[in-house]
Amino acid sequence: MSGADIAAEIAEALSEAGEAVGQGEYIATLTRKGTESASDPNAGTPWGDAATGNEPEPDTYDVTILDEGSKTRHNRDDKGVLVPRTARVLTIAATGEAPQMGDVITLADGKHEIASVNRVAPGGVALLFEVELKQ
Asked: What's the pTM?
């Protein structure tokens, strides 16, 4: 069984888990800022799309998620003391586009920016992503 096969099974399990807890299969929309068109002769110059305010269309991807709600995480301060913080955590199937920090994910309660991404990839193949959302 390949890593891609395992990732597909995990995506199916996320869907089933969502149905079992009453969420149903949860498909969210991941939005990433678009890039300048390669066909723009001024791309990358002060006269390109970004400089003139003609922002390129954002890229959107459908992703299968499981919303884990709020979790307590810990960071160390300058003195080494563990400081608890609360973060909303999502598990995203690795069968679609990989999430990145700064992407925006649209959920039932609105749009949220991704603060961090943890790629779960034993053996080098991504099986799922655990992401924290900005508060």
From this structure: 0.71
Structure tokens at 93: 């199937």
Q: What is the CATH number of the domain that holds 53?
A: 2.40.10
Q: How many distinct structural domains can be found in the chain?
A: 1
What is the rounded distance in angstroms from the CA atom of residue 28 to the CA atom of residue 104?
10
Phi and psi at 61, nearest 5°, equal: -140, 140
Note the pLDDT tens digit of each residue in 48-80: 555 566 667 788 999 988 887 888 888 899 999
What pLDDT is attached to residue 41?
62
